[in-house]
Design brief:
NADH Oxidase; two-stranded antiparallel sheet; 8 helices; 6 strands; globular
Length: 230
């Protein structure tokens, strides 16, 4: 871990080395794709409980993500407390009403029409867990002095991707929610001044009658997202 008195480079042999054959690699990546293509963003949640230990292990996985200078500039707050979830919903909906009343702009609102969203966010209460993702713009040494974190948005984005993949691997569904601004979250959750909330993940099991927008199943083909130079 980054600390003021431990700034020397100390290489160690690569741990946990994997050495798969080409055939095994092909099978492994195909199997992983088959798992991940079944991931769906869901807005209809069951109130079925999810054990805290499962959430903790998913966040532990997120913490293995690469980061700028290995500063790991992220923090996660997992919330199951009904009163706090209600407060977050109320304040998020207040901001969403302004957005859907025109604050988001015509182009953005038009783009959201196929998704079917509006300013009503019951999932923020129904889902058994909310995970709030914070970006740490700076850190503190033990003596209280600041140090700068690097590539913070990129690092936090990668860690959030790891978290979403882990939640899906655990058999759960998640919804990314990004009210803007989210200034109410840091004081509400008692987070330090150097942290900025970037996302809320509603996490749980899908409701029996859960649906997804048809457009969500339309993914760009590989040829549109990949360029290969050989």
């Amino acid at each position: 871990m980054f600390s003021k008195d431990n700034l020397e480079y100390a290489p160690i042999p690569l741990p946990d080395r994997m050495d798969l054959s080409d055939d095994d690699m092909t099978k492994a990546v195909a199997a992983f794709y088959d798992v991940m293509r079944r991931r769906h963003t869901v807005r209809d949640f069951s109130d079925r409980p999810v054990k805290r230990e499962i959430i903790e292990e998913c966040v532990r996985t997120a913490g293995t993500a690469p980061s700028g200078a290995n500063h790991q500039p992220w923090a996660f707050v997992a919330i199951s407390q009904p009163a706090m979830k209600r407060r977050i919903r109320e304040q998020a909906e207040e901001e969403e009403r302004r957005f859907y009343a025109g604050g988001g702009g015509d182009e953005w609102l038009k783009a959201l029409e196929p998704i079917g969203t509006n300013d009503d966010k019951p999932h923020l209460e129904v889902a058994p867990w909310l995970i709030v993702v914070f970006a740490q713009r700076w850190g503190l040494f033990g003596d209280g002095t600041r140090f700068k974190n690097y590539y913070v948005p990129e690092s936090v984005g990668i860690a959030t991707g790891f978290l979403i993949a882990a939640l899906h691997h655990a058999g759960l569904v998640a919804l990314t929610h990004t009210p803007n601004p989210m200034k109410f979250l840091a004081p509400a959750l008692g987070r330090p001044a150097g942290e900025k909330p970037v996302m809320i993940l509603a996490v749980g099991h899908p409701a029996a009658d859960a649906t997804v927008p048809a457009v969500a199943k339309v993914k760009k083909p590989l040829g549109e997202i990949l360029q290969v130079l050989e």
